[in-house]
Amino acid sequence: MTTRRRWAALAVLVLPVLLISIDMTVLGIAVPALSEDLDPSAAQLLWIIDIYSFLLAGLLVLMGNLGDRIGRRRLLMIGAAAFGAASVFAAFSTSAQMLIAARALLGLGGATLMPSTLSLVRTVFPDNRERRSAIAVWAAAFAGGTALGPVIGGFMLEHFWWGSVFLINAPVMVVLLFGAVILLPESRNQNPGPFDVTSAALSIAGMLPLVYGLKELGSHGVSVVAITAMLIGIVLLWVFVRRQLTLAEPLLDVSLFANRVFTVAILTNLLSVFSILGLLFFLPQYLQFVEGLSPLTAGLWILPFALAAVVGSLAAPALARLVTLRVVIGGGMLLAAAGFAVGALVIDSTGLIALGLWTATIGLGIGLAESLTNDVVVSSAPPERTGSAAAVSETAYEMGGAMGTAVLGTLGLALYRAGLADASGEVPQHVIDAGSETLGGAQLAAEGLPGAVADSFLATAAESFTSGMAVVLLVAGLVAAYTGLQALIVLRTRRARVQESATSEVVS
């Protein structure tokens, strides 16, 4: 395959990554419009938002193994067709139930796309240096798409109906299908061994309740339902891992975790996404309801984070040729930690320019780290297991996102509610209760209050939200700092290498 053809193939592989990462965040900004049109119940609205990530996280390991068996390009094309059809289904949904079903199909399609794209990068780019640059582009698309979701959603909602945020996926999937046929080679494990149905069932049965419990924790705080679901998921996943250790041809090769570089890469992916989800959960609300920006303008102020993440991802391979892998990964996470710390200190006292600077610092650090961790994940696995290894990496992303929303979201909202409880005694309790879920809810609840009382209530709500967000940023910064130090310390010896089949650079 010529150099030009390889990079054209990469452009095809980046398309689904970009769309899936956009879909993770675009829905949040469309919720008010679709709620007005479809009138979902509170439970239905939660399922509309959450079922996509439930199925995406629950099916990634299975789909990664399936791609290794039937062919990664074939699975990619099946997923592209399913994702495109589900996007049209979602765009023209006429009821909440119909949209929930469409979002479930989107999650199913997304689970087939993500591990296929990353594993095919290794096939298309056998040269270590070229592959590292290619994965940097892949990571830049993932990081940029996550932050571009609110921007694209805001633009589409200002010009079209809420379904347009889904409909834009369909033509891109058509391009992907044609590009895959023309440019992508097939890649599979030639001797996959028997398929273990029990392992497949255990992986899904363990992931779904675990992610559900984390989502419940983030939405409603600590509850019997959330804790029970998480415990069931953990027990089933423990049984799954124990079973993999006994199989000659496991669904997931858990021996990969014996490679310390692989393990650190997976943990870095999980904890970095955990940290940034705390930021992305609160930042759009802060910009819209504290700073008073429109959805589109708020989305544009998230662009510094997105652009810096892209820059960091693209710069990481060049930096890795000048310094060691552990310095780039660890240094990137420490840079992100510094950005979080600055944000926690100045969020309530500076303007939007300063906000753009410290969010860009976070994005740059995350981009530097995640670009190289994804290269490590793909490079560490045997060629016949790249789909499974990529699925582990993507599962770490999904778990980190679910945990970030659950833990950091719950923490920030708990502090917000505690501050709101101190609102003026002139504010009726039912108004305080109505505004305790979100800052937007507080603004709606205040509409029936007298002018001075409403102003005082909203000022208290904004101050409480900002204070809660500052604590979340501080905790996210501590997690990012730990992640960076882990990379610097654990990978400090010459024995911590990527396996011989991958990059030959020493991470010491």
CATH architecture of the domain at 1-193: Up-down Bundle
**Mind telling me the CATH superfamily name of the domain at 1-193?**
MFS general substrate transporter like domains
**Structural class estimated from helices and strands:** mainly alpha
Radius of gyration: 22 Å
Poorly predicted spans: 493-508
The run of helices and strands is HHHHHHHHHHHHHHHHHH
Characterize the main sheet. Answer: none
Q: Could you give the count of β-strands?
A: 0
Short key terms for the protein model shown above:
18 helices; disordered C terminus; Growth Hormone, Chain: A; 508 residues; mainly alpha
Please describe what this structure looks like.
- By secondary structure, the chain is mainly α.
- The radius of gyration is 22 Å and the shape is globular.
- Among the domains are: about 1-195, Growth Hormone, Chain: A; about 195-250.
- The protein is built from 18 helices and no strands.
- It is about 80% helix and about 0% strand.
